[in-house]
Structure formats: C-alpha cells, structure tokens
Amino acid sequence: MNTEEIKKFPLAESDNQVTIASGPVILDNQGRVLLTKDKKDNFWKFPGGTLHLNESLAQCATREAIEETGIPVKVLDRSPYAMLITKSNPDGSTHYILLWHWMAILDHIPTIFISPEGLEVSWFSEIQLDTIEVGPNVRPTIAHFKSK
Fold first, then answer.
1. 89 in Cβ contact with 81 (< 8 Å)
2. 102-127: pLDDT as tens digits
3. What is the rounded distance in angstroms from the CA atom of residue 126 to the CA atom of residue 76?
4. What ranges make up the beta strands (E) of 38-119?
5. What is the rounded distance in angstroms from the CA atom of residue 81 to the CA atom of residue 138?
6. Residues 143, 100: contact at Cβ < 8 Å?
7. Is 23 within 8 Å of 102 (Cβ atoms)?
8. Beta-strand pair 17-26/92-105
C-alpha cells in the first residue's frame, strides 16, 4: 500500500488524529491463526502496534510479532490488507489505519508462548474463532489472506 492509497481513506478534515499501525497475520499449516489479548481489551486480536519513524510497514509488523509474541517471522505477502477503524472520544475522532501482513514463523511453531509484553498468546482454529470475542478486523483479514 502506498501513500496515495492511504489518502483514499475517508478521513474528515475536522478530525485531528490518525494513527497508522501494522502487524502480522500468522496462520499455521493447520489453518489456525495466532492472536493476542491484553489486559485493556476484552477481545482477541492480531499482534501489532504503531508505526515508528523511518520504519516500513513490514518492519513494524515483524518488530511487533517479536515484541508481543517473542517469535521471529518473515513476510509472505508484501501487499498488506488495510482497514480503517474510527473511535470517537470527547475530543473528536481517532482514525486507525490498520495494515496487516501475512507472515510465517521462521523456526518451529511453538505451542506455549511467553510474551515479552505479558500478553496472552494463543492459536485458534476457525471453529474456535466462533466461540471467542475477536477484534472487528480479525475475520475479514483472515478471509482476505485465505482467499489468496
């Protein structure tokens, strides 16, 4: 995704905050997806975080995978899947441009995770996803990468 594509998102001129975040979508050979859960949210989501200065989207996704799950990954698809999520607050709206990269674990696939950031980390099958609360971007993002 390039700058021109990001500019196409419908961001109101009066809104003053846009956050760009990137993260990995990691599917194993059994079709399970790796998700995290922290103490501030009551749902499972992809690892990910805010883009740092002079960092590419793929670099951000790779860094976030290591920071949040402790595992090294490699990019499988350089074309990220993008979503816009808007959260309203008393000071106006905050827009989050979320860009997800399809990635693979470099070494073996761990079954038990010790998150450097203290997050819960776990694998979920498609059937299990129907039994847990997930972020609004999880299902459409998985569907996007499974269709490739």
1. no
2. 999 887 777 777 788 888 999 999 89
3. 21
4. 49-50, 73-75, 81-89, 92-105
5. 11
6. no
7. no
8. parallel
Query: Which two three-digit tokens encode residue 98?
Result: 């979320």
- The span from the CA of 57 to the CA of 62, in Å, is 9
Reported as a single tens digit per residue, the pLDDT across 24-76 is 999 888 888 999 998 888 899 999 999 998 999 999 999 999 999 888 899 99
Looking at residue 32, its amino acid is R
pTM above 0.85, yes or no: no
Domain chopping of the chain, boundaries: 3-142
According to DSSP, residue 147 is labeled T
**CATH classification number, 3-142, choose in 3.90.79.10, 3.30.2350.10, 3.30.1300.10, 3.40.50.720:** 3.90.79.10
The type of residue at 123 is W
48 contacts 21 by C-beta, under 8 angstroms: yes
